[in-house]
């Protein structure tokens, strides 16, 4: 409060798995964070942001690369273990095995399955040699006593998952239902499998030690480690096994159609039973935040909108469109009847006419109708019982694969899904007299075939449901849950508030002191095509891209029309923009963001690498971390340059540091580099740095060097406010 100008900082974002170093085994490791912190300090960054780092080992295959689908919200991921740091006395055969694994796994992308198998195999060999020494140590005993509440169930779950060869705990016979008594028997020293239990303890202990070392190093260097709090947990997780009452297991979490996916998203997580969670003042959430606070100084609340309301889907759905908000005030049957709406079966069941089948399936329509549908009225059809949900359709379509009259499986499945979604109202499965308007109902043939009166009534009720009647309810819901999170730790909380934003969200975030997120190409203002960084509010993180969208380079290349519009309206040039995001373009966009009033400007590492042509050799599309439209996306991106090389790159460091310092943002004091990096001291590096080569700007506006007159203007408080 004593500052004349609010404090502003900058940071870098990169998933843990994407980091590459000379020491790692095919994937970024917790101890690599020390090198990343060194590079951040030299570049003028106060923050390093990661994606979730919890164990996701649900399927035992590459599907587990999805970092938001936690096996446990407390356990760390074995993927990030540095096996050569498990012991100071590794025998030569294990050293050789580690070296061979390093060479084998040093690929362009993460090979999730091979990397996990190699690390666990090596860790087991070291465990057999040193288990007695480690497990009897005072440091392990202290760790165990502080974490046994979650560590014991986690180890027992991992044992049962591997024993039954499935993580679906409903398939575990008498162990399907968790109890404290069963747990103590499973982890008892007298069990034949006790060494397996101990191995899981051992791995988690070392992960804790390694991450703690990196976190302490970051604190010492004045760098904030920012973690990520996923909105959901996998339905086959330790948490749903131990606390089934906290989850609505017959539902699935997702998001309605938005910028990321016009068809909506289905993440597959069960939704939360907030009523049950409130009974112990949200103890499960408080424990999660306490655990995160051991390592992180700040955190991102994934999909903060879920604490206001969540997009809830039946567990038999595979796509994300036919959902409803929970909590929400539904349309009652009485309310609809007062408005002259009465044919509820017509509105809530798939509206399938013969003409639609002929249009969609051509000459194959009779074959489709005879196998999937029954004629309920003349020219009207309904789905058979064995294929009246998306999961049932997908299962049945597989049995028809290869039939000569049918097109490829995916298209047939999606066409049948479209028929299933051709509804106007969704009937509440728990109360048949309550209804919810189907999202984008005006797009459906079912709606288009209604009379004008019904159309007008349903349009009005649709907008009331989605944009008016829920606001107070959603505000109340958020004010019950979010303060509990915020009071559970001393970490700085940032909310990911992208997507379909209710009007109550930003006022609540402002009231609670929560920092929002601004992505320039996804403006929260409906009348803008691109956000204006100079007009962002202080309580925001601004960024040119994030892990859920294409990188700066990929975005520039993928949409010629938007690229032209950006060049014209933001850069202010009528010239034809370059087809690639050349360093001058990246420099201009990054400069816009560092000069924004936002408290934080955080840049994906890929966007920072675009500042130098040398790092643009890799195709831009390969740098994208996630594709939200693909529920089975393989999260495997690895930076194509090592951290050691980045630390040595004086030119890139100088470009970034000049941008940060020139913007007036705070930057950490320079000190000695990490002892693991045998290079010149930072002082020597600074003395030897020369200005980068003369660049030819595309326009004067793309110059990244602050002009003298700009620096003079920024001394004026009014100018600072306007910027």
From TrEMBL:
GO molecular function, one term: 4-alpha-glucanotransferase activity
Keywords noted in UniProt: Carbohydrate metabolism, Cytoplasm, Glycosyltransferase, Transferase
Listed EC numbers: 2.4.1.25
Catalytic activity: Transfers a segment of a (1->4)-alpha-D-glucan to a new position in an acceptor, which may be glucose or a (1->4)-alpha-D-glucan
Gene Ontology cellular component terms for the protein in this record: cytoplasm
GO biological process: carbohydrate metabolic process
Keyword field contains Glycosyltransferase: yes
Subcellular localization(s) per the UniProt record: Cytoplasm
Pfam (any one): Glyco_hydro_77
Protein's UniProt keywords contain Kinase: no
Annotated family: Belongs to the disproportionating enzyme family.
Name this polypeptide is given: 4-alpha-glucanotransferase
